[in-house]
Amino acid sequence: MKKTAGIHHITAIVGNPQQNVDFYAGILGLRLVKKTINFDDPGTYHLYFGDEDGRPGTAITFFPWDGGHRGKVGDGQVAVTSFVIPKGSMTFWETRLARFDVAFSKEMRFGEQSLQFHDPHGIALELVARDEGTASTWHFGGITSDAAIKGFGGAVLGSIQPQQTGKLLEKVMGLARLGEENGYIRFRSEADLGNVIDVKQTPSERGRMGVGTVHHIAFRVQDDTDQLEWKQYLEANGFGVTPVQDRNYFHSIYFREFGGILFEMATDGPGFAIDEAKDRLGEKLMLPPQYEELRPRLEEILQPIAVRTLD
């Protein structure tokens, strides 16, 4: 059995791109590590936020559809995206969210307290405090390493076939099944970030893609060779897998698991520093070679955005 190290990235659909930047960079303090386009829809941004390098396990990414139709959160989607913060920083985050008028609630799940809230476009998020995971060295907006988000804690999945999704995670992707509690099954990978997946045990209503929903969840593979092994392995286990897609900063394959969720398997490299210096990440619109000739037109139609410190 092969094993994934855990989550590589999570991609969601949101609305206005400046509101997206203000929330994830301005309020949550993540670094905008790449400003590029959706390679399959070049008139739409693809924005990546993460730690100082956008390492696998820290990067949340967005397709902003300003004025796009609203989606519906439900089965066949990531229901909640979880971020890890340092132990002892929960009070800091309660104060910070309140300062920016972000409503939140608290929940206990598997002995962990989480701080739950939504971004401006309806994406469900939570913060959990854990010792594991390297502290972020990215400082922005008054958030220092003793409170900064380290990366993903994991995700809560809503599935139309929870047992099938659980079987995939445990028997095919190599996550350990830790137990059941209050309607969830918990699985864990061997990484120190992006390592906890909770699956809702009871199906509800099917979700619908649109603004305010997660488009897909990506899991880590080591490199191109490992990815091709994963493709053959997944196909041998009955999943229809796409050809390899070159996303510049990683290579990807995709499949729709039996619970309806779009899964991606993405390589750890080459990373976000291949076309920008590390200290300048996210500053310019970066285009893949096939779209460079369209730069004047794309810069005209894409809304200007800026990372800014919020009062």
TrEMBL record:
InterPro entries: Extradiol_RC_dioxygenase, Glyas_Bleomycin-R_OHBP_Dase, Glyas_Fos-R_dOase_dom, VOC_core. Pfam families: Glyoxalase. It comes from the Bacteria. Transmembrane segments: none annotated. Residues 6-130, 151-268 form the VOC domain. This is Glyoxalase family protein. It comes from Sporolactobacillus spathodeae.
